[in-house]
Amino acid sequence: MYRTLTLSEQISRSPVTALMDELFQQCAVQLSVKRDELLDTEISGNKWRKLKYNLLEAQTQGKSTLLSYGGAFSNHVYAVAAAGKKYGFRTIFLIRGEKPEHPSPTLRFADSVGAQLHFCSRSQYRDSDFLDHFAQKFGDHVYVLPEGGSNPHAIKGCTEIVTELKMQMGKLPDFICLSAGTGATAAGIIAALDGAAQVLIFPALKGNGLEEELTKMLLGYKGKSYRNWQFIKDYHFGGYAKHQPALIHFINEFKGKFRIPLDPIYTGKMLFGVLDLITQNHFPKGSKVVAIHTGGLQGIAGFNERFGDIIKL
Ligand SMILES: Cc1ncc(COP(=O)(O)O)c(C=O)c1O
Within this chain, do residues 51 and 145 fall inside the same structural domain, yes or no? Predict the structure, then answer.
């Protein structure tokens, strides 16, 4: 049985941590982190936000099974599998790519909590008819979550980040910074801000088209697309799951200094960018900046397995 949290319970799990450093003093910027990675140990960050109203909807519709899609290292797959175990849903996934000889820690976890894993080729995965047909095979008791969990229920869950920030800080910050994949988390934040504050969005992927996607999502959700957001495209480090030594060094140093772990795919790149922008005096003096920790820490194990324990735990 799924039980949601009240806003005050959410706030107590996800505090806003102010970071202290000489750099911020020199540049006269206050930087804080909204700690959504602490919302739940397994259903963490924006996955928790995106699942909240989807799980309620699945329950209301009397669905017994969650079905979704993702890659072998997907934070979404991990979180949905964990939610299934915790709240009593069966879980089924279609995983992009042939069955690996050595499954990733994400897939090992999903398997260990009873998820059913199916694999398909990358070209099948790109074929929406194939995906629909896959879901239909399992019948009516299935609640389908899109890849990354991004849909209007997910956007609604992400709007609460702003509601909480207002309550926690008394006043909204001047800038909200976050990482983006599909843009649904950003859409929720922008929709809730309704024109207040500036949103800096750091895409984890190389490539274009996300602006159009985000505009479409906002128009669909709110009927408006707003102007108080901007993509910062200089910090994807070569694209999804790509990295460079400077990023790894930054993540390890950040954890040592502020006791906040970052993942190498999303939050590490975003905070690298935020600190770099502070150094460049991008933010006017006196600015209050909040970076959203969208989670993703489960990905460190898979990253370290592939690249040799380079991120310190
Ligand atoms: C940890 C983390 N941060 C940020 C994002 C990006 O979220 P969105 O797809 O809503 O842009 C993702 C991916 O879904 C993620 O796993």
Answer: yes
